[in-house]
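Journal club prep — side note

Before the paper discussion, L.F. wants everyone to see what a predicted structure for a comparable chain looks like in token form. Sequence:
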Amino acid sequence: MTLTNRVMNPRHYFRNLLLFFLATLSLALTLTGLGLSYSRAMNLVHPRRAEIRITPAHYGLRWEDVSFKSSDGLALRGWFIPPRAESGNAVIIYVHGLGANREQHLPEAALLARSGYGALLFDLRHHGESEGNVSTMGHREVEDVRGAIAYLLTRVDVDPARIGVMGHSLGGGIAIRAAARVPEIRAVIAASAFSSLEENIADGVQALTGLPSFPFAPLVIFWGEREANLRLADVRPIDDIAQISPRAVLLIHGARDGVVPVENAYRLFAAARAPKALHIIANAAHAGLMDANPGEYEKQVAGFWKQYLK
């Protein structure tokens, strides 16, 4: 058989065509997977800055524009709402979620201002109007909270023994991690918080892309760690929460949370030490916890601060 005849053999031709198709498909799937995982990782560590649209004036509050430094030197911007005597000059630091900004917690701040609680609402690094070019997903943001504490300690209108922290989603994880390291934080509320960043990236990849957690979640972590220059696997509030005791922690979570599943709250609560409390809102998703049941939300949150900050 000549070379020409062997090349033109239909059986060999279709076999080679099939192999070429499979190799091309495999390469395309690999490149697509790498692209999707890289894009997801960049969305995490470089979230788009949300524009600030409202201020405390929208709620009729008295407030000041403030700026201070994180403990590692970044300029952070925020609003300070002065406390009143009926709260014992207590102030709550609010920590927003990924891709949000300081206005996220204005409804809670306005609610508690009726009882005299002050507030410090600020933009995390690489969010809002604060400095920074990367979000470290709760790793270095602890230094932002340290800077907020240091700022409050300079104010004569704040009782340094009555400073609490409240955070939502990523902010909830940051609040837990900060309280475990900063003794000036007297009590913590963490809403829709994750127990482990690594585990929730896996859940998020599946929920947002429809792709299986493996191998895409490890790829997201791989790209994210290199871009942020840290180990995302080290961001584990579940390993920190026990260190908050004997200071109090309240965990709030929506039973229908599709972003950070409610199982995170149960794991965090099991790992925490007393005093601790868990409030699950049956009809709530990841956001809008206050709107789902305003009366019960106010009862839980205001009651917690009254018990542990007043």
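L.F.'s comment for the group: The chain has one domain: 46-196+235-308. Keep this in mind when we get to the figures.
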